[in-house]
Amino acid sequence: MTPRIRGNDYTVLEPPALGSAWTPSLRASVVIPAYGAQEKLDLTLAGLAAQTYPADLLEVIVVDNGSDPPLRLPEIRPRGTRLLVCQAPGRARARNAGLAAATGDVIHWMDSDVVPEREEVEAHMRWHHLAPYLSVTSYLRFSTAALPAPEEVAGTDDLAKLFEPAEPHAWIEDLVARSQGLTRSPRPFSIHIGGASSANVRLFERAGAMDPEMILGQDTEMGYRLAQAGAVFIPDPQARAYHLGPSMRMRDSERINRVSHALVTDRVPGYRWLRTHPSRQWKVPQVEVVVDATAGSYDEVRATVDGVLAGTVTDLAVVMTGPWDELAPEQRAPLKDPRLDLVLLRAHYAHEGRVRLATTPPDTTSPYRLRVPPGWSPGEDTLGRLLEVLRGRERGLVSVLLAEDAEGIVAARLERTEAFARAALIATEGEDADDLVDEMFGTYWVDGESFGFSAFGEAAPYLNPRAAYRARVSAQAEVERLNKEVERLRGQVAKWREEAGRWRKSAVEFRREIGALRKQISALRRAQGQSQGQGLRGIARGLSRPFTFKKS
């Protein structure tokens, strides 16, 4: 049975030790896009020629991306090496050409300036034999050493002798350390790098090829789509390679970030801190809301869609499903059209940028998908609260109970895309997707009324944006007034504290004076007691003497 990995906790897997007696069966396709730098490519291929992974299970595809002079295959190379030419510029296009030509079960990206250790491919492939939805990344070290000869690379058993001292891939190793090996990272796809990462071909079939519009940041964007396809990301410290020279980010990180962030923000909702605008739309929305237009009337569907669009979560798109291509509006007697409601819905939302018409729900790269039955309207912050539940509990599904009767229950569903994609990858006949998601991510039920859902006709009027603005301005003014009042009261409290301090000081002095008086009183009492005692003793002595009567 295919392992059910919970979240990104791949530690449940037990890969064989490197060099141990295990029998590989999967074929690896190493895809190397290259542009110029023949001497570095020669070293990359020399490193691949010395791999411990069986040569008959290894193919290498070098894609010349328009080099002048053209690249050639050196003498020292794996025997299953092919050279393709892709004249269209761009590393993404070159990789896609290699991906299309690959015949392996696993695609292993490798840059043409990366030299792998002898066991690098084996380190990757031992994981892929355990589950079909893994993405493995090597540990790179960046070397500025003089380039050795290909024969030295192919003949050594330790590349450190040739390339050390070198620098680590610091930000990746720091991320791995902070997240317990990525098992606790909310964005493990961030470590997907084209220099030395691999993934099962089934993941690429679901995620698609690389985006040629991404001139930078394409590795991160590809990693994000692999995640939405169900991937588990594994950084393997025993999969090691050397990068010849510093990376682009090391050379100019500020300018690289400026460009890559501009492109990644539109496509990777996982980097929410980059989406700072409160209401604009993005190519890949944070949430996709699916509403079946055939399951309710025009008014019911509209109530649901409008409720979604009026909420606090604006980073979303609504997919309204129905037989849109089959509609032919009745021109002579429109009121008698049996599909009039669908015609009205199409007309009503045709020019709303956040509403998309589809025959069936398409595959999505949005991280979350909400399914709502027509006639149920979410409250203003309903979706935001549901997202907090899903994120905070790291669940794969939050189901919302809307109604229940003798016929069954009515529910909405907020689904985590990667959870259901992974379930689809491993499901066998008869297995329920919800059960698999519960096993690997967890599921949770909430009450619809508590989360602000309203039945058709019961929803409160929408708050006009201008009215909301005025209310916010009024609230801010009230907050400022209250802050000033708080400052005034703080000043008064400070005066009272100062006065109380003086009182405490006076009270201490009074206590001292009272203590002194008490001592004086005690002394006087003792003195008085002593004098009274002496008088009484004198009287007693006089009484104790015998009386003598004198004769007169």
TrEMBL record:
Protein name stated in the entry? Glycosyltransferase
Q: Does the keyword Coiled coil apply?
A: yes
Name the InterPro entries on file. Glyco_trans_2-like (IPR001173), Glycosyltransf_2 (IPR050834), Nucleotide-diphossugar_trans (IPR029044)
Residue stretches in coiled coil: 472-527
Q: Which residues form the Glycosyltransferase 2-like domain?
A: 29-128
Spell out the Pfam families in the cross-references: Glycos_transf_2
Give GO terms: molecular function aspect only. transferase activity
Species, as recorded: Microbispora triticiradicis
Sorted keywords for this record are: Coiled coil
* Highest taxon in the source lineage: Bacteria
